[in-house]
Design a protein that fits this description.
By secondary structure, the chain is an all-alpha fold. The chain has one domain. Helix 1 packs parallel to helix 7, helix 4 packs across helix 5 and helix 4 crosses helix 7. It is globular and about 55 Å long.
């Protein structure tokens, strides 16, 4: 029953947050959009729908919740080797899974085959909350199997695994958003969580800056590894997207879907 309720919230919370961020972007945008909202939003909606279908098919084989339930049924995973209070398990799960997502993101940039898929996300020439929906279906498959393996190996309880997914998706929407945070708030948040200005650097057309700020939620991993960058070397002149793409192609769904093959 709890898991079913969380499943509803896993859809409702990101949907509400996306709507609120879209309104905030319209009221007080951080940057002027190069391609605008249309047809980008239509393309990102098509990515969302495509990935929703792929996600339903994956559910027949493996999803994060299924991996968590499997580890619970068979007593498999690190957390089943010790009887820790739930808050310790939850804290460790969030920290370790956040590191796993950071590591996956780094590998997406370092391994050529994975980069061919991930560059679809980076090809967007603007950055707003809908960019968090812009992932190629093959990347979704890799990401789902990867996170599911971590959840199973750790033995993360189902409820904690689902709450982490909600937390991760909410952070992704937030740090991709085109909102202008007060400077004092940005400075206050950065020691802990990734802010929109911090993630903006990662979407630079400069390859060196694409290898900075891999975090989706916590900033600690970039700070420890030395991949943290406070701002772009280009300042407000920073451009977003891929250096080799300077036309309107990224706003097209079919072009974006075929990009890994080019």
């Amino acid at each position: 029953m709890i898991e079913a309720g969380l499943g509803i919230w896993a859809v409702a919370i990101p949907a509400i947050l996306l709507a609120l961020l879209a309104l905030a972007e319209y009221a007080q945008p951080r940057r002027a959009l190069v391609l605008g909202r249309h047809p980008r939003w239509r393309t990102h909606a098509l990515f969302f729908l495509t990935n929703a279908v792929v996600g339903r098919l994956l559910a027949l084989v493996m999803v994060v919740g299924v991996a968590a339930q499997w580890s619970a049924d068979f007593g498999f995973g690190l957390f089943h080797l010790a009887s820790w209070p739930w808050w310790i398990e939850a804290s460790l799960a969030f920290i370790i899974l956040d590191f796993a997502v950071w590591l996956q993101h780094l590998l997406m940039h370092r391994w050529p085959l994975l980069w061919r898929m991930h560059k679809v996300h980076h090809s967007d020439r603007d950055l707003d909350a809908t960019t968090a929906l812009r992932f190629h279906p093959f990347e979704l498959i890799v990401s789902t199997l990867y996170k599911s393996a971590w959840v199973a190996l750790l033995g993360v309880p189902v409820t904690i695994a689902l709450v982490f997914e909600i937390w991760l998706n909410a952070n992704s929407l937030f740090n991709h958003s085109n909102i202008r945070l007060p400077r004092w708030l940005d400075r206050a948040l950065r020691p802990v969580v990734v802010t929109p200005d911090m993630h903006l650097v990662h979407h630079s057309t400069l390859a060196t800056e694409q290898h900075c700020n891999y975090g989706f939620a916590l900033t600690i991993w970039d700070r420890i590894s030395g991949s943290y960058a406070a701002r772009s070397v280009l300042g407000e002149q920073q451009q977003i997207g891929l250096a080799e793409t300077s036309d309107t192609s990224p706003g097209q769904f079919l072009w974006s879907m075929k990009l890994p093959l080019t």
